[in-house]
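Entry 14: structure prediction run for 2-hydroxy-3-oxopropionate reductase. Input pasted below.
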Amino acid sequence: MARIGFIGLGIMGSHMAANLVRAGHEVTGYDVVPASVDKLLQAGGKPAPDIASAVSGAEVIITMLPDSPQVAEVALGPGGVLESAAPGVLLADMSSIAPETSLAVAAAGAERGVRVLDAPVSGGEQGAIKASLSIMVGGAAEDFEAAKPIFEDLGRTIVHVGGHGAGQTVKAANQLMVAGIIALVSEAIVLLEASDVDGERGLEVLAGGLAGSRILDLKSASMLARQFEPGFRIDLHHKDMGIALSSARAAGVSLPVTGVVAQLVAAARATGHGSDDHSALLSVIESLSGR
Ligand code: NAD
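Run finished. Output tokens:
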């Protein structure tokens, strides 16, 4: 069992940290929001008043933060992880961020003897609760092997996808697919309802055929009921579509469908759905038809 410092105890991090406690690890956690740290205490972890206290004595540090600026600040900033982490410690950033930020953190870690992995996840809050996440890992193979037993307490599908930043590129590919599928499920709902076909029955039969998908399984009931409690916030998916498009530009490729879907996500955000679940894309697609 490992001594783990866990930074970022939000929708995902709170459940992931609780699963690590349940698996027998000693977890010390920090979040800027004190109520989130209290949740870890209730789950059997130890609260830390700042990053240095969460990192002190830890063998492994996990960060689960919203976006690149927060990861850069927490890892590289004054009073941050790299300032307090002992050489040999392993830092696994499980946030979804820009690959170039993962590369910068890995380079700064290497200078201090801290081993760094980018290890973003997919599977949503339910995947975090059930420890069934998909974890896509970039970094050195030996560091991946060292961290794998801990990842196995958080997820089911755990794959080393390449060097530093590769985990984030795979996550960007995941996010463009998820947003695209939600957009198409939304279009299916609009068509069915506008044609007076029962949406629930329509989606039920679609789920059993080639159009079936995890998103249809998990989200069709809440989408049909227009319940958009997050889950995964539109604001975060907007961030991820930006990462997908800037990664495409860096790689010199064209992703036309992703471009359109990114604009739908931007419209959802601009029309007040930023804090709603990403399935609120349905509202934007309905409004295009005046519904
Ligand atoms: P969240 O906003 O609920 O959690 C982030 C946490 O980080 C918050 O508790 C916040 O207070 C904390 N935080 C922010 N700045 C901090 C700092 N400087 N120091 C310490 N703590 C700080 O977000 P989330 O939904 O848990 O997502 C976290 C990451 O995981 C994001 O990158 C997101 O894109 C990704 N992700 C989310 C989901 C999902 O379904 N929610 C699924 C897969 C991946």
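Notes: The first strand starts at residue 3 and ends at 7. Will compare against the previous run tomorrow.
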